[in-house]
Amino acid sequence: MDTKEIKSKFPIFKNKVNGKQLVYLDSANSSQKPKTVIDRISKFYSKEFSNIGRSVHSLAVTATNRFEETRDLVQKYINAKYREEIIFTKNATEAINLVASTYGEKFIEMGDEILITDLEHHANYVPWHFIREKKGAIIKFAKCNDKGEVDIDEIKKLITNKTKIIAITHISNVTGAIMPIKKIVDLASQKKIPVLVDGCQGAPHVKVDMQELGCDFYAISCHKMYGPTGVGILYAKKKWADVLPPYQGGGGMIEEVKKDNITFPGSPTKFESGTLQTAEVVGFSESIKFIEDVGIKNIMKHEKEILEYGLEKIKKNNSVKIIGEPKNRGSIISFTIKGIHPHDIATILDEDGVAIRAGHHCCQILHDKMGLAASARASLGIYNSKEDIDILSNAIKKCNKIFNN
Amino acid sequence: MDIKELYQEIILDHGKNPRNKSICKDFNKDAKGHNPLCGDKVHIFLKLNNEKKLEDISFEGEGCAISMASASIMTEIIKGKQFNIAKKIQEDFLNMIKEGSKLNMNSLTDTENMTMMSLSGVKRFPMRVKCATLAWHTFVEAVEGNKKIVNTEN
Q1: Which of A292, A313, A332 delimits the end of a domain?
Q2: A318 and A221 assigned to the same domain
Q3: Mutation target among A338, A341, A402 for the B interface, most CBs of B within 10 A
Q4: Distance between alpha carbon A321 and the CA centroid of its chain, in Å?
Q5: Label partner for A336 (CA 20 to 30 A): which of A81, A106, A125, A275?
Q6: What are the pLDDT digits (tens) for A171-227?
Q7: Which domain CATH number covers A50?
């Protein structure tokens, strides 16, 4: 992979940070955007913009077409069987909230169980907490092991006749553990339990095929996929998209409105209320094209190479402790340095143009379990090179030097 | 400015070997401070006598070097002072961190001045200002407040 060429497609890398070249290692948080995506949004506003799905004038028709073409692209990209299964949301958080709220309202009762794991991002816990509070449901946490992964047996152990949904991450945003989604779906389907997958760290980095995975719901964060902020996608299997009630009420999501009754159309319309983030959705079509141009297999291969190089390089520094040792690891290296708080690490690295994340990464349950208040995290994207890792490694040594440890 | 101006020896020293990090005996006021964005936590304990003198002050907590050093430095400087003086020092400190103003307390010794000044580099790191100010806000809350929990985001 020619990362120089890849980087040249992302305008952000032309800028200096603190006078240094940018080493961006925070893609698990949000990825950078290729010029094609940025230009597409600009072109849409300059030449094609109008509100969609409402007016009959030419611009409205063009804008609607561009928006719906993106839905088709997404359907094809994740190999969903029906286009009604693709629902645009404002982010992956909203996608999970949509399911928790509508599925929870209709199918979860007092004493029912929601099965999640210790690895979940707050976005795949807090929405279920709301349902727990509202319905008197129970949340069970499948245990994460010392390697930072959740064994499928831990999930199996917790399934009961009361289990109403299994909500799990595809790839942990802290330990990088890749979960065996297909096996979990097979296990759940024997008991007819739907599975929701938080795909925030999955979709940008590995091949995702809805018909192959077989999950019932899959939440995607577009801004982590080289796309614009403000766009998320909920894949909802047709059997659920058909029966779940509307999410938020408003314009654009109704069939007929009378004083004594309101009727609603099918999916995705009933879930997409109000004026949507039209330009961003259209811009996201270029993200998919970008990923397809590079090729997801090439992305996987390249990121694996950089990941392995990074793990090896960082492990050589004795003061660094890498969090988790999963068998299958996504493009994430979380770590701590003895005697240096992660926020201090992040500040010192930033001085060298190295952008990482420090904190609990919205995974307080996991950090509590590991006995940590915070950790530092370097996460990869397609633009990262071995040179980036070298700069990271030297910047870590600088932390050691400043803190004299 | 070099990163070493943020992480000065004096800060690293207080961060590694914090002074007054304990629960002081016979404390009669306390308050907790929390920065939910980065997880810094501090719990301030103090013994205020009838004449409003800070007979003793200590803290417990965990967080980055800046937050721990700042808490440590604060306890060292305001211990034994009248609350109204300590509050003026706090205001002076906050002005230095947020506005970049010079310290203008006359009652501080040169060493105290220099110790407080060591944190002035934080101003250049906006994301870290709250780390430096958490303990100082919490100390005033312990004496004057009724929430007893300071949250940097509320």
Answers
A1: A292
A2: no
A3: A341
A4: 25
A5: A125
A6: 999 999 999 999 999 999 999 999 999 999 999 999 999 999 999 999 999 999 999
A7: 3.40.640.10
CATH code of the domain occupying B3-145: 3.90.1010.10
Rounding to the nearest 10 degrees, give the CA dihedral for residues B74, B77, B79, B82.
-110
Measured CA angle at A257 (ends A256, A262), to 5 deg: 85
A226 conformational bin, left if phi > 0, alpha if psi -120 to 50, beta if neither: left
Structural domain boundaries, residue A130: 38-292
Closest Cα in chain B to A351: B3
Tell me how many domains chain A contains: 2
List the single residue in A with minimal CA-CA distance to B38.
A359
Q: Are B64 and A343 an interchain contact pair (Cβ–Cβ within 8 Å)?
A: yes
Amino acid identity of residue A269, one-letter, is T
What is the tens place of the pLDDT at every residue in A353-396?
A: 999 999 989 999 999 999 998 999 999 999 999 999 999 999 99
Is A402's Cβ below 8 Å from some Cβ in B?
Answer: yes
Look at residue A405 in the predicted model and tell me its pLDDT. Answer: 65
> Is the CB of A348 less than 8 angstroms away from the CB of B3?
yes
Query: What are the C-alpha distances in Å from A260 to residues A155, A251, A269, A270, B51?
Result: 46, 17, 22, 19, 70
In terms of domains, do A45 and A135 share one?
yes
Q: Where in chain B are the domains?
A: 3-145
Same domain for A327 and A391: yes
B102 touches chain A (CB under 8 A): no
